[in-house]
Hints:
It is a single chain. The chain is an alpha/beta fold. It has helices spanning 14-19, 29-36, 52-63, 87-93, 112-128, 141-151, 163-181, 194-202, 205-220, 239-242, 267-277, 283-290, 303-315, 332-340, 343-354, 356-363, and strands at residues 41-45, 99-103, 185-190, 226-233, 249-252, 293-295, 298-300, 381-383, 388-391, 394-397. Strands 2-3-4-1-5 form a five-stranded parallel sheet, sandwiched between helices. It has a three-stranded antiparallel sheet with strand order 8-9-10. Helix 5 packs parallel to helix 7.
Amino acid sequence: MAGKVKLPMGVENFGEMRTGGFYYVDKTGLVKTLLRNPGKVNLFTRPRRFGKTLNMSMLKYFFEAGSDIMPSDNGTIFDGLEISGEKELCEEYMGKFPVISITLKGATGENFEEAKVMLRRIIGKEAMRFRFLMESDKIDDTERSQYEALIGTDKTGTFTMSDDLLKDSLLMLSQFLQKHYGNGTVMLIDEYDVPLDKAYRAGYYDSMVEFIRVMFGNAFKTNDSLKFAVLTGCLRISKESIFTGLNNFNVYTVKDVQYNEYFGFSDREVRKLLEYYGFMDKYDTIKKWYDGYRFGELEVYCPWDVVSYCHALRMEPFMEPQNYWVNTSSNDIIRRFLSKAKTADRNDIEQLITFDTACRAALKQINDRNYAEKLTDDGMTTIRKYGIACYKRRCKVISG
Length: 400
């Protein structure tokens, strides 16, 4: 293994990935697809550990003014990657925009007030990256005072912005940056759903939903300073709850064909990685263990499992595969769903698990235009949420 680059165990910063000697599975085509299919607000929902945070970091490095330059030479950290072949796009967009980039992973608390303290900290720290605004001749004294309020702290270092200012914080910061740079602000919000999930579990969901609805509404709706926004998370929160009134709002879930290749590893990417590290003899094992997802019409591997197993193989060539992904977080939301589900729903889910092999085979029929005609409704147990109908272990894909 001498001379091989490092496996990116837990690396989620694109700059570190590209300058620290790590193996990178090229997902920069995401930039091209975003720019050629413009949407003012774009939401991507994917399972955890599928590269969402790394992709958000990549977008930040691409668009943010000054962040695309390699520290060692005059090149960029995108040299040699797919997007570097798009010369016109790179010339027009690379390193040309102010970027607000936050993760709401830590915006949680045992109660609503604690959660708001953490939210102030997240946005306040991001605002502090732009201290040059204090000296900018592009904003007036009133705006300068408003910016000071965004980054103001007490003697303990706790951010002190009021609730009303917090609701306007993303809007105001985007406006100040647009004035300073003369270009619209790109807004990246990772793990947007975490505060809402925690609020639901802790009993203050309604308060948090209302707060986030106002904050996002101010930031995304009729904000002339916004170039575009990208949000990522594991859960899809209904548009009616926090995205009410947003136009040109695009949601891309695991069911959608668009962008399916940019989250998770494709079979081709896994083969390439295994060939590089000399583990092609483990391909069948890895496919059996970790090729368990389907995004749109693409079969996808869990990146965390693949990288973790390859890391283990570098340490111990005879290591048996393990379920690495399951230990990365809790499945509380599934437990809550099952505890509240009706008996019929639980039975359907149990059958889905029991008929796993047959159902996975059935999914491969998705390209068969006549599959719906093959179904027999009489006596068939349907699991419509998953698009599968099972009857005596003979499964078919259903439409709708």
